[in-house]
Amino acid sequence: MILYRLRCSKGHEFESWFKDSKSYERQEKKSLIGCAVCGDAKVARAIMSPRIGKGGEKVEAEAPAPTPAPPSTEQQKVAALARHMPKELREALLKVRAEVEKSCEHVGDRFADEARKIHYGESDKRGIYGETTDEEATALAEEGIEFGRLPWIPRGN
Ligand SMILES: [Zn+2]
């Protein structure tokens, strides 16, 4: 079945069901279709108003732009940071790094422990450097332990 919107020669519009488009054409040719309002047999298909917008069609959502995968490790983050850093800043940081390496003891990931020991007098007062997590750094700061953080940028490029 097919629904056609029809219009008679007097301008009345009405809808009528047909078995198929051929069935409509046959009936139309033989003037078998009468206007539902005035009975006029001179009918033609009215142009269906196109249905655009008004919540009908779903506009396909644009695919989100591919976002670069976040650096997985702190080291990669710092390396990425170093790449976008002005040359002077990078050189200054490398200088600080060299200074720290020369005058301080590297304690690696025991930094938080050692910093605490020094702070509470359990260990010799000395300069140390190493790595620590954000959580540890926050804890140290809350305990009033002095320390500095600097991007430990890789040497070379
Ligand atoms: Zn009519």
What does this entry look like structurally?
There is one protein chain. Helix content is 34%, strand content 15%. Strands 2-1-3 form a 3-stranded antiparallel sheet. It contains 5 helices and 5 strands; from the N terminus they run E-E-H-E-H-H-E-H-E-H. With 157 residues, the protein is an alpha+beta fold. The protein folds into 2 domains: 2-45, no CATH class; 74-142, no CATH class. The longest helix has 17 residues, at 87-103. Bound molecules: zinc ion. The site of zinc ion has 7 residues, from loops.
CA radius of gyration is 40 Å
Molecules bound to protein = zinc ion
**Shape verdict:** rod-shaped
Q: Tell how many strands the DSSP assignment holds.
A: 5
Helical percentage: 25-40%
Q: Strand portion, in percent?
A: 5-15%
SSE class? alpha+beta
First-last Cα distance: 74 Å
SSE arrangement, N to C: EEHEHHEHEH
Please supply descriptive tags for the structure shown above.
157 residues; alpha+beta; 2 domains; three-stranded antiparallel sheet; two-stranded parallel ribbon; 5 helices; 5 strands; binds zinc ion
Topology of this protein?
Elements (H helix, E strand, L loop, with lengths): L1 E7 L4 E6 L2 H9 L13 E3 L28 H10 L3 H17 L1 E4 L2 H9 L8 E3 L3 H9 L15
Parallel strand pairs: 4-5
Antiparallel strand pairs: 1-2, 1-3
The structure holds zinc ion.
Zinc ion (ZN) binds next to loops.
